[in-house]
UniProtKB/TrEMBL annotation:
Presence of the UniProt keyword Repeat in the record: yes
Gene3D superfamilies noted in UniProt: Ankyrin repeat-containing domain (1.25.40.20)
GO MF terms, alphabetically ordered: ubiquitin-protein transferase activity
Keywords tagged on the record: ANK repeat, Repeat
PANTHER family per record: ANKYRIN REPEAT DOMAIN-CONTAINING PROTEIN 39-RELATED (PTHR24171), BRCA1-ASSOCIATED RING DOMAIN PROTEIN 1 (PTHR24171:SF8)
Protein name: Uncharacterized protein
Residues making up the signal peptide according to the UniProt record: none
A biological-process GO annotation: protein K6-linked ubiquitination
Keyword Isomerase set for record: no
Name of one Pfam family that matches: Ank_2
Amino acid sequence: MSVDIRLYSLILRASSEGYHDLVDRVLSRSAADHRPALLECRDDSGATPLMKSARAGHHPTVQVLLRFGASVSATSQLGNTSMHWACLGGFKPIVKCFFVLINS
């Protein structure tokens, strides 16, 4: 059974807008074998939900996505990671969160 494409749009939009409760609800209610597809779905530029939330500075959303196993090493079509976006935006709490995860 495949993931409904509307869920991809929903999680990408919710991540970019900072709706961490909605992201949590979607991931919590999704079958465990569907979560990787939702966490790694991409927009037209190749950005994942984690990249979109990091780029917008939505720390609570970043935390939810990481809790469910989002990849910090995924890259967009231009080679940017979530860490790049957080650094470019000056979002220190998100950068710190990534460093803690990477160094653990």
